[in-house]
TrEMBL record:
This is tRNA pseudouridine synthase A. Belongs to the tRNA pseudouridine synthase TruA family. GO terms for molecular function: RNA binding; tRNA pseudouridine(38-40) synthase activity. Residues 1-99, 141-241 form the Pseudouridine synthase I TruA alpha/beta domain. The keyword Disulfide bond does not apply. Transmembrane segments: none annotated. It catalyses: uridine(38/39/40) in tRNA = pseudouridine(38/39/40) in tRNA.
Length: 257
C-alpha cells in the first residue's frame, strides 16, 4: 500500500520520485546490488497523487528468503508513505500485470461546503447537494461491456476503449460526510474512474440527465464528459487474478511478490 501524495505515480520516470523507483532501489539494496539489476513489475500504473490499498508487484530475487523475513526487511527500509502488506513466493510463470483478471477502485468525495485541509490529499471535493437515487440509477448504465471512449483522457496507450464493469456502487459515509464510489471491472484506462465520477456527481447534482452516460457511449467524445475529479480521492483497492472470487479473495497462485 502507498500514500500517493508525494509520488509522481507508479511508473519509473527520470529524476522523479515514483513507487516503482523506490521499490526497485530498496529491493536491490536488500540483495546488495550496486546497480538496479532486479526489476519490479506492477499490476498496472497509478497516476501522481493516486493511492493504493493493495497494489501487486512481482520481482525475481536471487536468494531464498522466508516470506515474512522479506516483508519485514523491505518495510524496515521503505519510506513512511509505503508499506508491504504481504509477500508470497509464486511460480516463475506468474506475472503481476499480465495475469490480472480485474481491478477494484475506490473513490472518496468529501461533501463539505469548503475543502477540508486535513482531507485534501485523500479525497476529492464536491460542495453541491446530490441525489443518491439519481447516482445509483446512473451507475446501472455503467455495468456491462461498453465503449468508454468518452471517459478516457488523451494520452491513453490502449488499442481498444471497450471494457467491462462488473459492479459499480455508491453510498454516503455519514460519519465522514463523504460520497464513496466503488468500481470493479476487467480493466480501467487512463483517468477513466476519475472521469466517470465527474459525470456521476454532475448527474447527482442535476446538471446532467440521469441516463446521460448512455448518450456519452454513443458520441465517443471526451470533451462532452467534461471534468476529471482530483487524483487525491482515488484508491486502488484490490487486484484480482484468475480463479479469485471477488466476494471471497483467495491467495494468488504459488516469483517473490
Amino acid at each position: 500500500m502507498y500514500d500517493g501524495t508525494n509520488f509522481a505515480g507508479f511508473q519509473r520516470q527520470p529524476d522523479r520520485r515514483t513507487v516503482e523507483s523506490v521499490l526497485t532501489q530498496v529491493i536491490n539494496k536488500m540483495a546488495k546490488n550496486p546497480d538496479p539489476k532486479i526489476l519490479v513489475y506492477g499490476s498496472g500504473r497509478t497516476d501522481a497523487g493516486v493511492h493504493a490499498l493493495a497494489q501487486v508487484v512481482h520481482f525475481d530475487f536471487p536468494f531464498t528468503i522466508p516470506e515474512e523475513s522479506m516483508r519485514k526487511g523491505l518495510n524496515s527500509m521503505l519510506p513512511m508513505d509505503m508499506e508491504i502488506r504481504r509477500v508470497e513466493i509464486v511460480p516463475a510463470t506468474f506475472h503481476a500485470r499480465y495475469d490480472v483478471s480485474g481491478k477494484r477502485y475506490l473513490y472518496r468525495m468529501d461533501m463539505g461546503e469548503f475543502r477540508n485541509p486535513f482531507k485534501r490529499n485523500y479525497t476529492g471535493h464536491w460542495k453541491f447537494p446530490v441525489d443518491l437515487d439519481k447516482i445509483n440509477q446512473a451507475l446501472g448504465d455503467l455495468v456491462g461491456e461498453h465503449d468508454f471512449t468518452s471517459f478516457v483522457a488523451s494520452g491513453a496507450q490502449t488499442r481498444t476503449f471497450v471494457r467491462t464493469i462488473y459492479e459499480a456502487t455508491c453510498h454516503i459515509d455519514e460519519a465522514n460526510h463523504e460520497l464513496v464510489f466503488e468500481f470493479y471491472g476487467n480493466g480501467f484506462m487512463y483517468n477513466q474512474v476519475r472521469i466517470m465520477v465527474g459525470v456521476l456527481v454532475e448527474i447527482g447534482s442535476g446538471t446532467r440527465p440521469v441516463h446521460d452516460i448512455l448518450r456519452l457511449y454513443q458520441v465517443k467524445d471526451r470533451k462532452q464528459a467534461r471534468r476529471t475529479v482530483p487524483a487525491a480521492g482515488l484508491y486502488l483497492k484490490h487486484v484480482y487474478y484468475q480463479g479469485e472470487d471477488p466476494e471471497h479473495p483467495t491467495k494468488l497462485p504459488q516469483r517473490q511478490r
